[in-house]
Design goal:
By secondary structure, this protein is of the alpha/beta class. The chain is built from 20 helices and 25 strands. Helix 7 packs across helix 8, helix 14 crosses helix 15 and helix 15 packs parallel to helix 16.
């Protein structure tokens, strides 16, 4: 049977005009149209709606990802459409896709099959220009730093200790480590430099965590760009770039409104990676979704040890949010890969491999229930090759933890395939207790203790090894007054550990911390582990090679 591609399904959809979606979300007075199917929401909405009660927040997260796929964004969208089908007023809050994965290997972030947000091509490509604005703001600061040095360096910036990097929203390994400022005195000061991918920029994190234009400007001012010759931090505010950066970002701060294939309002805004940043859509978009729906469905990037941990420990802590329920997405195929099967062997029933891999799911579920104290349901994203025995095995294992399992067929069936999950999520929100919600660590503890709490409580590791450079950085950051900030761990997404080859639910491991730095504008400490990089590279056959456009402007090959 030949299946339609994601883009073919999306292009067949008869989209509603964005004004119709705005009416459904009750935001028609606040929209700024970007064509017929996209709009931005004016920030005054949240002030005007401040006395309106919030809806219930539902977090969709997943097991540790594998090449077999999990379908987290697809499940998020299908769940929202399923809730709409059972008569609930629902909104969805998602991250914007980065061009890096779109042209690289992972794909976009607009869902898949019959559970997508549209216009899919726009969302996966330039959308409303938010990422371009973030890139420009980031690089304006970089240019002003080097210009300050060129024009006399009044702040005494040590060019060997500039921590601010340039960025581009593309997988470009060639730019990870560069030397620039060559060509003589007129062309700047020669120094080591480098690029991050835009989604890993602190400007992205600042935009996603800011609550207003004023808060955005204050956060940008606090960004530490490096150190002077006296070993003191130098900030963006001292460089004088915060005002101009805010001007570049003022429209990007407004959340974007689009729709699902079934016409559910979707706020798609911000997009940091969860393996190297905090991995959540913007606070403003989430709060807008909560005001405009009785239920707001959101997702966090990669597995629950990364995206969900950061949403709960960073975003919820900063923004005062509390999820009413958590959906843990899994596939039988991915669990069998965690149990040791190769990708080519996943179509056959194999309870032994499933038994080997299911501890990964159970650890994630246990974390949500026992570490964060939140109600949880497992959504098994069903594939045609999954057997009844395999499904029954997962149901029984989850039942032992007091968690129900719902089968989801949203990829093939859209919202109809998410109705069973929707009913269980409504039950969790209305009948289960989330009042015990707590964080995995106390923000007032030392930086070392907070990192150890994440490794031992969430990852299931034994200990943390701090390399000498990291120990020195932690001491320095504590002395500078940053010791009480939350922790943002940059770690491989493929394992609970910092070793991507350790699948399943590894035990007895130690996580190595090699670098620690402050994102003072975002308001967290970034902890780099293992071999994690903030600029990915393209694969041998990039997805970009399959993308094309015909003489009528119709795009093909985009998933």
């Amino acid at each position: 049977m030949a299946y339609l591609t994601d883009i073919e399904i999306a292009q067949q959809c008869k989209m509603q005009h964005i004004t119709e979606i705005a009416k459904k979300a009750e935001v028609e007075k606040y929209i700024e149209q970007y064509g017929n199917y996209k709009a931005k929401i004016d920030l005054s909405l949240l002030d005007d709606a401040k006395d309106k009660p919030d809806g219930k927040l539902v977090l969709v997260t997943a097991i540790t990802p594998t090449p077999a796929g999990e379908g987290k964004t697809t499940t998020t969208i299908g769940l929202a459409d399923g809730m709409s089908r059972i008569g609930k007023k629902v909104t969805v809050a998602l991250r914007e896709p980065s061009l890096g994965p779109v042209f690289g290997v992972k794909g976009g972030a607009a869902g898949g099959g019959y559970a997508q947000v549209v216009p899919m091509e726009d969302i996966n490509l330039h959308f409303t220009g938010d990422f371009h604005a973030i890139t420009s703001a980031n690089n304006l600061l970089a240019a002003m730093i080097d210009n300050h040095i060129q024009q006399g360096n009044q702040l005494g910036i040590d060019v060997r200790r500039i921590t601010w990097k340039r960025c581009v929203d593309m997988n470009d390994r060639q730019l990870r480590f560069i030397v620039d400022g060559l060509g003589g005195k007129i062309n700047g000061t020669p120094r080591e430099d480098g690029f991050d991918i835009t989604v890993a920029s602190e400007v992205m994190a600042v935009l996603c965590l800011a609550s207003s234009i004023t808060d955005l400007k204050e956060r940008l001012s606090r960004i530490v760009i490096g150190y002077n010759f006296k070993d003191e931090p130098v900030t963006c505010g001292e460089i004088g770039a915060a005002g101009a950066m805010t001007a570049l970002l003022k429209d990007a701060l407004k959340p974007n409104l689009v729709q699902t294939l079934e016409g559910t309002p979707a706020f798609v805004h911000g997009g940091p990676f969860a393996n190297i940043a905090h991995g959540c859509n913007s606070v403003i978009a989430t709060k807008t979704a909560l005001k405009m729906g009785d239920y707001a469905i959101t997702e966090a990037g990669f597995g629950a040890d990364l995206g969900a941990e950061k949403l709960l420990d960073i975003k919820c802590r900063m923004a005062g949010l509390k999820p009413s329920a958590v959906v843990m997405v899994a596939t039988i195929r991915a669990l069998k890969m965690h149990g040791g099967l190769a990708k080519t062997q996943l179509g056959e029933e194999n309870l032994e491999a499933l038994e080997g891999g299911i501890p990964n799911l159970l650890r994630h579920v246990s974390n949500i229930k026992n570490v964060y104290k939140l109600p949880c349901v497992v959504a098994v994203n069903r594939f045609p090759t999954d057997t009844d025995k395999e499904i029954e095995f997962v149901i029984e294992k989850c039942k032992a933890l007091g968690v129900n399992v719902c089968l989801s067929t949203v990829w093939a069936d859209g919202g109809k395939g998410g109705e069973e999950l929707a009913k269980e999520v409504v039950r969790l929100c209305e009948e289960e207790d989330n009042s015990g919600f707590t964080f995995s660590y106390n923000a007032e503890d030392t930086i070392e203790q907070k990192i150890k709490d994440i490794v031992t409580k969430v990852y299931g590791g034994d200990d943390v090894a701090f390399l000498p450079a990291a120990q020195k950085q932690i001491k320095k950051l504590t002395e500078m007054g940053y010791g009480n900030l939350p922790i943002c761990v940059a770690k491989t997404q493929y394992s609970f550990s910092d070793d991507p080859t350790k699948l399943g639910a590894p035990e007895g491991f130690t996580v190595t911390v090699r670098n620690v730095k402050v994102s003072a504008g975002a308001g967290f400490i970034v902890v780099l582990t293992g071999d994690i990089m903030t600029m990915p590279g393209l694969p041998k056959v990039p997805a970009a090679m399959k993308i094309d456009v015909d003489e009528n402007g119709k795009i093909t090959g985009l998933f």
